[in-house]
Amino acid sequence: MSAFFSPFISKPDSVSAIMLKVLLALLPGIALYVWYFGPAILVSISLASITAVATEAAMLKLRNRPIAPFLKDNSALLTGWLLALSIPPLAPWWLVVVGTAFSIAIAKHLYGGLGNNPFNPAMIGYAVLIVSFPVQMTHWIGPHGLGEVELSFLQQLQYIFSSVLPEGIKFDAVTMATPLDTLKTQLHLALPVSEILTQPIFGRLAGHGSEMVAVGFLIGGLYLLATRIISWHLPVAYLGTLFAIAGIFHLVDPTHYVEPLFHWFSGAAMLGAFFILTDPISSPTTHKGKLIFAAGAGLITYLIRVYGAFPDGMAFATLLMNICVPLIDAYTQPKVFGKKEGKS
Amino acid sequence: MTSQELKDIFYNGLWKQNTGVVQLLGLCPILAVSSTVVNSVSLGLATTLVMTISSATISPIRSAVPNEARIPVFILIIAVLVTIIQFAMNAYVHPLYLVLGIFIPLITTNCIILARIEAFASKQPPLQSAVDGLAMGLGLTAVLAVLGGFREIFGHGTLLSGLDLIFGASAKSLVITVVPDYHGFLLAILPPGAFITLGLLIAAKNYMTLRATENEKKRVIPVTATA
Amino acid sequence: MSEYLMILIGAVFVNNIVLVKILGLCPFMGVSKKLEAAIGMGAATAFVLTLASGASYLIDHYLLVPFDLPYLSTLSFIVVIAGIVQFTEMYIKKTSPVLYQVLGIYLPLITTNCAVLGVPLLIAQNQMEYTLLKALWFGFGSAAGFTLVMVLFAGIRERLEGADVPAIFKGSAIAMITAGLMSLAFMGFAGLTK
Amino acid sequence: MRRTLVKAAAHTALNVLFFTLIGTSLLAITYLETKDGIAKSEQEEKLKLISQLLPRSSFDNDIVSDTVKLPADTLLGTRAPSKAYRARLAGQPVGVAMEVIAPDGYSGRIDLLVAVKADGSVAGVRVVTHKETPGLGDYIDIAKNDWISIFGGKRLNDGKDDEWQVKKDGGQFDYMAGATISPRAVIKAVHKAMQYYNLHHDELYANPVVAKLAQEEKK
Amino acid sequence: MLSALLVMSGIAIVLGAVLGFAAIKFRVEGNPLVEKIDAILPQTQCGQCNYPGCKPYATAIAAGEADINRCPPGGEEGIQKLADLLGVEFKPFGGETNAPKPKSVAFIDENTCIGCTLCIQACPVDAITGAAKQMHTIISQECTGCELCLAPCPVDCISMELIEENISNWKWKYPVYALKVAK
Amino acid sequence: MSMLHKFHGGVHPPTHKEQSTRTAIATLPIPAKLVIPFHQHVGNIAKPLVQVGDYVLKGQLIGMPEDGISSAIHASTSGTISEIGMQVVAHASGLPDLCATLLPDGKDEWIPKTGMDFRSAAAADVRQVLRLAGVVGLGGAVFPSDLKLRAGKHKVKTLVLNGAECEPYITCDDMLMRERADEIIKGAEIMRWALEAEQVLVGIEDNKPQAIAAMEQAALASTDDIKVVAVPTLYPGGGAKQLIRVLTGIEVAAGVRSTEKGVQCFNVATAQAIYRAVQFGEPLVSRIVTITGNVREPQNLEVLIGTTVQDVVDYAGSLPDTDGYIMGGPMMGLPLPGATVSIVKAANCIIASSPKIFPAPPPAMPCIRCTRCAEVCPAELQPQDLYWFAKSKEFGKAQEFSLFDCIECGACSYVCPSHIPLVQYYRFAKSEIWSRESEKNSADAARDRFEFREYRIEREKQEKAEKLAAKEKAAAEAKLAAAKLAEAQAATSVTPPPMTEAQAKIQAAIEQAKLQAAAVKPKNTEQLTPQQLAEIAEIEARRAHIHELASTDTEPPNGHDKNQ
Ligand SMILES: Cc1cc2nc3c(=O)[nH]c(=O)nc-3n(C[C@@H](O)[C@@H](O)[C@H](O)COP(=O)(O)O)c2cc1C
Ligand SMILES: Cc1cc2nc3c(=O)[nH]c(=O)nc-3n(C[C@H](O)[C@H](O)[C@H](O)COP(=O)(O)O)c2cc1C
Ligand SMILES: Cc1cc2nc3c(=O)[nH]c(=O)nc-3n(C[C@H](O)[C@H](O)[C@H](O)COP(=O)(O)O)c2cc1C
Ligand SMILES: Cc1cc2nc3c(=O)[nH]c(=O)nc-3n(C[C@H](O)[C@H](O)[C@H](O)CO)c2cc1C
Ligand code: SF4
Ligand code: SF4
Ligand code: SF4
Ligand code: SF4
Ligand code: FES
User: Fold this and answer.
1) What is the distance in A from the centroid of ligand 9 to the CA of F230?
2) Is the bond into A7 cis (omega within 30 degrees of 0)?
3) Distance between first and last Cα of chain D
4) Tens digit of pLDDT for each residue in C137-171?
């Protein structure tokens, strides 16, 4: 007998296929990223991929677990990609390596590897990096045509691996703060929103270029929704809450609070709504739980963006809500068949 | 007190029942002030002092205290000792006093002190109690020192920084730079780093214990086979 | 009004007594293996902590300061706290055996909870800024922060029971690391109250 | 019942009282013993800080005691009274070190000590406490970086207020890329403190305090 | 100094009085813990814990006099449950305590039995029937497998038999779930 | 007809039903040997009535239903009983159970059969007939049908006939409905009458148009209110609770009997068996079995109960790469321990499996909490949580999360991308919980008995002391007359002479007993002789008496009266 117990048949699907589809869904966003910001991001993605797979293999070996099936599940790769996408492309190589290794080794494997981690590994990696290396983590490249100086790909490579810039070019000149960061800093200087948004770094909805990257992630996200890899509850509740709160603040005081669409299309909101919050392992399983989880994340994201110390709140919002997942799950258990109230 | 007894008490305090990695008591100072070796060891020694004296003091008066007032009286004695040490540090090593801050008065509520008094001193004669307090305190200091060492190296790339707080500016030259030109892994010095490093330390202790028992087993098997 | 809100947000989230201030860790680690116990411990501590904040504020304000005895703060606070704890224990044991069943074994531990002494000491340090009401409110906020993270932590630990955690990390090691990652997450609240 | 209750209560009370008395006495004695030592240490600590700004050789008074209470003032960024320490050489004003607050640091307020020479130039600035991001905004702390010494010798030039800004905003002060909020806050606070100094120059140096009175003040 | 003493004395007297008062006023008797512990023990009543039955062992645990790892019939699971209840660390079997044995029931060879009634007196749970001078038999559903009847029997007619797996006591097995590298 | 309702979840596995519906139901020739288990139903095993060597006729009662939930077992054909003993049966354990082996004589001679006109009989009599005819549910649960036909406290409004047959591969009900629809409808009439139900709904999945047509045709002929309803094809639409939900909108929770909600559900084959038992007095000695999968000619066969699987497979033509047999469908079926086991009343289908049909599943990965399982679970459970707890043996938690509401349909395992044998974990957890429950019960009983024993000993001691005191008193009175004699008397009463006598006898018996011990093998004490039973009863009575005393004069020890 091929299987020892019923059922003897199963639907042809696998974890690695699911993960692969998520990786595919990231491609439109990555393509637009390269289009607007240049190919440096591909270097971080490659670095992160290699580190992720190597760490995964090493940890599996240490834990005395079979290596091949787990390496083939693509989940480490996904963690690596998502982390790489949250790190400034010009970040030194060791930043990517340290972050990815921490994600996989501590946040994933100390908990037992795939399926066991209570926290989103990629976001743990991001949080560790931003509190440990805030300088490196807040210097992003600007989109084509905006920066004072644009480095060639070779120069970028050289900078990533040896932190050496071409003669006469200052680090300041090749990088700039992100749109969210700029907005926050300038609001601090008591400039009105309308004036801030006229600067060239901003585009139609949010940051010039980065808004299109967000659109790319939105497209990938819709693909994930269509293939039922993720359920609508998380993105809808997250983006909905973010929109609602931002909308209320904006309506009350438009000089200090940008409109909600800006929040949707800047920072990690789109990436987070479709790819990060949706990590099945660290998010709740019940429908009601997903709604609560994502709404909470939306609220925290907004608070951190507007009042907090960090330019974007996505990662911390995810982690903070990750903490609540077991309780959310426990208290949102749906009524089982025949035990619903109101029905006889 | 026999030397075996003495050995047992020390083995217990330093390893088997170590407060930091086994009993998980006295965690607040362990985690809060262990960002450098100097801080760690200073607070560890202060705590050891309090533990030793309080154990020795409470052991003889134990029976004189009515049950319902037991904890208030014990804690009162501890608090007096702690405050005395606080005054002393304030007067003689003021910079260190400033760095350790609220954690000096908080030695009072360091769980391990009352725990040892309840578990040991209230049942044993003063001498043993004092030694137990000393051993436990040294165990705590050891964990603090190791933890402080790791966090300092990871976080700053140095060792023994802050020595000048105790011995004056001249001691600055004693600071060891372990990794020159280090970026500083800030996480290690921040609260999360404290938790994670202690977690890893506990795992290391578990690993060593596991190895020890496995070796034990390996050693035992042939013996029984021949017997 | 918004001042009180800030005190609350500050005490519960931004300067969470356990994860940011690193106080009260022993019960946090020790009594969080089971959710039920964590809720009990959290509630008991919250009660004592709030009461202790008020009581020590009164002592500080009406005895220590007028008589110029700030050096007695640790001593007087801890004695009062120990008294409150002991009294609460006896009272609950008598009046509500059910509650005692839940809280009973944890109550004595509260005396040696650093948070319960730490909060009154913090209040005493910032004497000028607090009124009795604010001191109570701050105490309550800290207590709520303690209970909150304790309960959330217990939730995660219960879930971890089923996780394939490497043998040497099982138990307190992984719990410690989890607390660290929670603390990392709580750093996200930084700056919410300036 | 009543009887035993009262008796039990009295018994416990006496017991606790006994230990309290012993403990408190011990404590009080230690306190009296160490009191002076503590006061001395505290004073030395202050002196060490101030003397980084105003060289010890430049004054001869007991600067730690010779203080004046500064009322809360927006120019000082304070909401409660703070203190100024005055340096005199042979009775003549040499300079003053003011406790100032920069309320708008990246992560909250930054406590500063701003020393101004009698001639109206900055003697030096030190960050006493701050909560800026380690590794990013904390270069304002002398322990991390000597950026803060750029204030030495700077003056308040009438009419040229916009020089008191970071270079990025068109001013004269350097900053580190990636963290401009912290220096902005410090510069603004020092700038305002200088204005305060100019406005209140005379009051600041008035009524030299004799050492005894200073003791009183401390409480 | 004087003010310090006065202030602290005031606090001490109030506190001491309140506590002394409370100690009498709120005194409670009995220990509900024993019942809870007893509910976990397997009630085999075998005395392997060195106490004459499960209840006495429970009482000893509640009083803090006995370790939680002394009941072999309860197995490791029993220890775990006790550890959870009491909030202490799990402790494996060891030292002088026997490791748990597989479940079995006593069995009297009725042809050999001489009806001495000694086993009846030994059985803590009245699982043996038979009158004096007649042969005895064991009600196997009621036998807890304590082995206490073995020693008293003068003709050694009682033996322990493993409870074998059959269709009615068969259990589904834990699914084989290879996560570990096969060695 | 009112609108159909929906149940949550469900899956659409490929059905593979067309393979076995190409030919009409054939009858399998009488095999050379029948192995008839005495336990083919839920509840108590039937008590054997025959002995080795007995000659039996077809339909002769060979296993008598025990008290309570139980059913009868019959000889499936005429012949000789050649063996009664333990044989491997169709059970997940692969363990042996009590079976009778029957060597057919080929005459297939019936015992005299007498049918009855149910409408003029009492419902209780009809039920008794069914019980003795061994009619049990043929839909899979094999619950004695007579018990299900008891109207009970609650009025049954709707009788549901289950013709859904939602499992892939199985077609026995389909074929039965196509060919014997009128018998099914007549059976339904009997059931409706016995339950006094108002209406009968026959639910058939819409992938069986021919069966629906045949059943509609037959229903027309009935005077009862019988409706045939096509329900959507969705596994496990044939689960009784799911079908009831679809047809009536009523949800019956786990642990609740559907009759409490006014519905009762039977399989269509059960209806037919009931008809034959009542109308013709034919006990249940055969059933329709689908033989499919890796065989040359998949089809449906009428098979005598007790026929070995090998016989059935051989008839359909076995193929070389067959690597096992499944009884039931691929979703819920049972892997058989071998082809030697026999067809039982529950055996609706035999699938010969081969690596081609049922390829080995890829190795299980950890659960990634994708909740696909929760999306398809008809019981609306959270299978991923149940798995998490079952895996780590946190049975209490599993129970809290409604483990026992799981109907083991396998839909969750079917969709799991990690290929985790989820249902297997639930089975494991359930059986562990059951065994713990029973251990706990026996521990409680042991505690009661122990405490009672302590109490009894205490009491006996007291009585003895009282007697002693009385005697001493008497002795003291006599002391005046003869002091020395009285003392001696008192002394003897302390050590009663019978004890010493007994001890002496023991000593005497030891030698002889030891000799015997060496010679004799122990035998099972479970099988008590009537004499011993009487003895036990007597002891119990004695205990009861003391109990009574105990409860009247002193405070009884905790809960001892549960003992009785
Ligand atoms: C966890 C996380 C944090 C991020 N933080 C920021 C941020 O602080 N500011 C921002 O504008 N984009 C942030 N991003 C978004 C960027 O990774 C990327 O999506 C965006 O397109 C970068 O555009 P930029 O170069 O204009 O910043 C973050 C993404 C992630 C996943
Ligand atoms: C986690 C984090 C912490 C920061 N901390 C500080 C800080 O302490 N001080 C500061 O001036 N800027 C800090 N910043 C940077 C500000 O957000 C802002 O980008 C910067 O001050 C603007 O400088 P620029 O104008 O040179 O780009 C921090 C940024 C991040 C992401
Ligand atoms: C998942 C599941 C699927 C079932 N599918 C069918 C089915 O297709 N046909 C059927 O008659 N019984 C099926 N049953 C059995 C029914 O639930 C129920 O036991 C039966 O219809 C009762 O009738 P009976 O007593 O006549 O067998 C299924 C049970 C379960 C749990
Ligand atoms: C829809 C989806 C989203 C995912 N998001 C993340 C993520 O945000 N971070 C991450 O580390 N892994 C993510 N993963 C991969 C995987 O779940 C993750 O590595 C596990 O948490 C490791 O146990 C995702 C997987 C899927 C299917
Ligand atoms: S060892 Fe025997 S008597 Fe003791 S508790 Fe266990 S079962 Fe009961
Ligand atoms: S019959 Fe023997 S083994 Fe069984 S319970 Fe009684 S004394 Fe124990
Ligand atoms: S379908 Fe499988 S992997 Fe997905 S949640 Fe359910 S058990 Fe886990
Ligand atoms: S087997 Fe149980 S848990 Fe799985 S889908 Fe069916 S009812 Fe739900
Ligand atoms: S040391 Fe702080 S609670 Fe134990």
Assistant:
1) 68
2) yes
3) 50
4) 999 999 999 999 999 999 999 999 999 999 999 98
Average pLDDT over residues F435-457: 87
Instruction: Please answer yes or no on whether A133 and B190 come within 8 Å at the CB atom.
Output: no
Closest CA to ligand 7's atom 2 = F416
Closest by Cα among F279, F269, F313, F307 to F294: F313
ipTM, 2 decimals?
A: 0.86
pLDDT at site C146 = 95
pLDDT in tens, B178-221: 777 777 788 998 899 999 999 999 999 999 988 888 877 665 54
pTM over 0.90: no
**F344 shares its domain with F372:** no
The answer to whether position F7 is within a domain reads no
The region of weakest confidence among B77-81, B119-123, D113-117, E147-151 is: B119-123
Q: Quickly tell me which residue has 């139609």 as its tokens.
A: A204
CB contact under 8 A, E32 and C97: yes
> F242 C-alpha vs ligand 8 centroid, how far in Å?
12
Task: Look at chain F and report how many structural domains it folds into.
Answer: 2
Strand order in F324-327's β-sheet? F26-27, F299-304, F286-293, F349-353, F324-327, F334-335
Q: Is F367 in the pocket of ligand 7 (CB under 6 A)?
A: yes
For E:143-182, CB contacts with A below 8 A are 175-176, 178-181
What residues make up the domain containing F371?
366-463
| Ligand 8 pocket, residues with Cβ under 6 angstroms | F 376-379, 381, 383, 406-412, 422-423
Ligand nearest to the CA of C21: 9
F298 belongs to a structural domain: yes
Q: Is F441 within a domain?
A: yes
Question: Any residues with CB less than 8 A from the CB of C180 and at least 6 apart, and which?
Answer: B191, B192, B193, B194, B195, B196, B199
Percent of chain F with pLDDT strictly greater than 70: 84
Q: Which amino acid is at F519?
A: A
Minimal-distance CA residue of chain E relative to C164: E179
Does the Cβ of A248 fall within 6 Å of ligand 2? no
May I ask the CATH architecture of the domain E101-163? 2-Layer Sandwich (3.30)
**Where do the H-state alpha helices sit in B157-190?**
164-167
Contact status of E182 with chain F (Cβ, < 8 Å): no
Q: Is residue F470 part of a domain?
A: no
F379 close to ligand 3 (CB < 6 Angstrom): no
Q: Identify the closest residue of chain D to B65 by CA–CA distance.
A: D15
Q: What is the topology classification, in CATH, of domain E32-86?
A: 3-methyladenine DNA Glycosylase II; Chain A, domain 3 (1.10.15)
User: Does the pLDDT value for residue F478 go beyond 80?
Assistant: no
Q: Are residues F140 and F259 in the same domain?
A: yes
Q: Please list, in sequence order, all residues whose beta carbon lies within 8 angstroms of the beta carbon of residue B75, skipping any fewer than 6 positions away.
A: B108, B109, B114, C78, C79, C82, C111, C112
pLDDT for res F526: 44
* C-alpha span between F388 and F377 (Å, rounded): 16
All residues at 6 or more sequence positions from F556 whose CB lies less than 8 Å from its CB, including other chains: F455, F547, F550
Q: Token pair for residue C65?
A: 């300061």
Give me the residues paired with residue F26 across strands.
F301
Of E4, F376, F542, whose CA–CA distance to C67 is shortest?
Answer: E4
Q: How far apart are CA F264 and CA F38, in angstroms?
A: 27
State the smallest CA–CA distance between residue F345 and chain E in angstroms.
18
Answer yes or no: do F134 and F268 share one domain.
yes
- Specify which residues F79 forms β-bridges with: F56, F104
Contact B94 D45 (CB under 8 A): yes
Contact C183 B102 (CB under 8 A): no
Closest CA to C112 of D24, B82, B195, B75: B75
Distances (CA, A) of F242 to A7, E94, F52: 19, 53, 45
Quick check: C19 pLDDT over 80? yes
Question: In chain A, positions 49-108, which contact chain C (CB-CB < 8 Å)?
Answer: 62-63, 106-107
